[in-house]
Amino acid sequence: MRFMMIVKGTTDSEAGTPPSPELLEAMQKYNEELVKAGVLLAADGLQPTSAGIRISYPEPGGKPKVVDGPFAEAKEIIAGYTLIEVKSREEAIEWALRMPDPHGFGQGEIELRQVFEPHDLTSEPEALAGQAALRKQLDERRRP
Amino acid sequence: MRFMLLVKATGCSEAGVPRSPEHRFAKEASLASMAEAGVLLAAERLQPSSGGIRMAFSPEGEPELECGPFPADSWLLAEYLVIESESMEEAIGWARRIPAPGGCERMEVELRRLEDKAHGPRNIGLENDLALQLGMLRQD
Amino acid sequence: MNRPSARRTVDAIWRIEAPKLIAALTRMVRDVGLAEDLAQDAMVVALERWPETGIPDNPGAWLMTVAKRRAIDWIRRNRQRDDKYAELARVSELISEDDMDKALDGEVGDDLLRLVFMTCHPALSREARVALTLRLLCGLTTEEIARSFLTSEPTVAQRIVRAKKTLNAERSSFEMPSGEELAERLSAVLEVVYLMFNEGYAATSGEHWVRPLLCQEALRLGRILAELAPREPEVHGLVALMEIQASRLRTRVGDQGEPVLLLDQDRAQWDRLLIRRGLAALERCRKLGRPLGPYALQAAIAACHAEAPASEETNWIRIAALYEALSRQAPSPIVELNRAVAVAMAFGPAYGLQIVDEIAGLSALENYHLLPSVRGELLRKLGRYGEARLEFERAAAMTRNVREQELLCARAAECDARSSD
Fold it and tell me: Is 0.85 exceeded by the ipTM?
């Protein structure tokens, strides 16, 4: 099963402020753990939205609208992702909970999502139920 | 290596003569020790041949059927075991420990080595590559 | 936390932490069966405590601490039994638990590698190696292992018990092999991993759902090995091969809702992420500057196909050369058949046919329908329609796949029409 851990943007990531040496080291160590466990598929950081573009489709069938970044709401922005291959939802949750706090000043947020695999696309209700179950399990983990 | 132990039928086994409690106990114990050693793969008794059927297949036509009971010669089986062991000698060692029923005619066990399941590790990758490449050969 | 979810979470944690635990404990007690028991004991304690206290921030360290304490207790209690335990007990009294922690933490990678070599020890049969590796390194249950190999659970359980006993009898089994023995052992390890991958990859009808799991486990184990033994080119070669082959696998949903493997010949559907990973692994292999071994060669061939944007752009000359090298290093009839196709595509059907004719009589290929399929195609390209038709008919009779049969019969009919022109 494939899961994506999405790291949300923060004011720092949007400002292009480089992460602290401690955070950098923690992230590197974490990625190494994923590699050593054979579960990492891919991981990337995204550049700030000041270098990005948003394309929207206001008119159905009409021309797309292009807007240059930066974009206002930092917490709705994606700063990076990590893709892992694991045996169960619980394992994905376990790895996500081991990720170092991406910001350290209260803005850090990670979203965990299961990736559609080819056969999933034919059974959408199943996938949606899966998402709900995942959310429920994450909530339960946070309460001891 | 896997071996099959073929325990032959006797007049007593065919007549359904019950085994003594001592023999049953000893037999269970020997099977248990084989199982504990991880050697025993299978062990089953066959019902007497009065309930059995023989089928003779020839190249043409339907097979001929014959109902039991069949003569209790050395062709007729009463029981079989399958064991895993490192060598024929070791297999013989295990076979020796099977207790004979006593009283009745003597117990005869045939030991045969089973064919190895795999002809060495299969390389599915090569086979699938061939299917892929043959597909390309077919396009012209 | 309600009970069922706690169980599955602990299972996930077990899967992540167990190999490291077992490896470290094996170093302490020199008995892989005991090590597994001690690790499982620690998990039982976790299952009792964590629902109340919550899961600790570092569950791995928590488990390691509990397991090590039990190991030390066990060693002290059993010192009379054996010389080796007496020695260990003496050592454990001299070194404080902190020091032992520090010493053991530094050796986690080393321990894991030793454990891998242990589970693939030459004293064990091939089936035993696979079962023990799946159990101790992949954390699969006996049931999962049995279903993967279509055998019974008691058979697998007994196989594992015997394997542990055999390893205990082999005093030196925890020692790291060196020199030539190391190369042999590594080769055995890679064979076990690829065997797992093969079992999972066999896409025949009626496959049980656990088989895709086997492919995943093999890939994961390969990737772990690549980190444990980064200077061994064939390890990267095997990983590259598995990543690229896995890129062609898709799953569809079977009747019971279980995933079933399908081999995808449509390159637009190949997983580009896995292909990229495979190419990266192949690059790591090449960078070590040694001649390519059998796994790396197969990976390089798979890479040629993966890199060609369309089948017309395939570099057949390179593929033919790679098969030539493979046929020298790991000769087999299937390699020759593949080589014949590559040579035919690169240099013309006559040369391919020469190679096929050399292996045509081999008993290993007696019931293999792809042999007459290939021969038929080559004869057809050479205009020898009468002979081609016979080969296609022979192939059609050998295969049980309905679509293949239809294709081959159509080919035979077409040859029939052409030869009477």
Answer: no
